[in-house]
Amino acid sequence: MSQIGFVKQESMTVKRDGKETPVKWLEAYFRVGGLRPFSAKIVKNNRKENMSHPDFHIYLRANVNKGDKFRDIRIGALWLKTKKIDNVEKTFMTGNIFMDFREYPIAVWKALPRYEGEVVEYLYDISVMKDRIELSSGENAGQGYEVVYEAAPVPTDSDIPVDPNEEIPF
Q: pTM to 2 decimals?
């Protein structure tokens, strides 16, 4: 897994009905190589009715300019999981995020210091996981997951016509 971001709890005070009210939310900051950094808010799913519904949704903020009145765009979902790792029960989230015209599987873990004296100033690490699909047939059916990559055909000289007298035009 490669870390692609982190989650902080943000807050601000807003005026509602003449009263100043503090508002808190989880903000995910994505720092992905090759993409411009962006942030998204993580919102608890209050309409969860069964286990297939996510515990949280990830929304890209649509109102970035003054006067914008767009609805935020849902770009991902997260499910709470508990698993025993090295004989210790750990809670984390797994899910997906849509970015760069593709959906990526992600995991969100509690941020822990990586070296002595490190001060971690955010709550969670966001990591991208390997692509996985469930095996539904064959000898390993129902025994786990497997990474499947389709190899692109290797072009031959007949596929790419080359004139030995032609020069690069710059």
A: 0.72
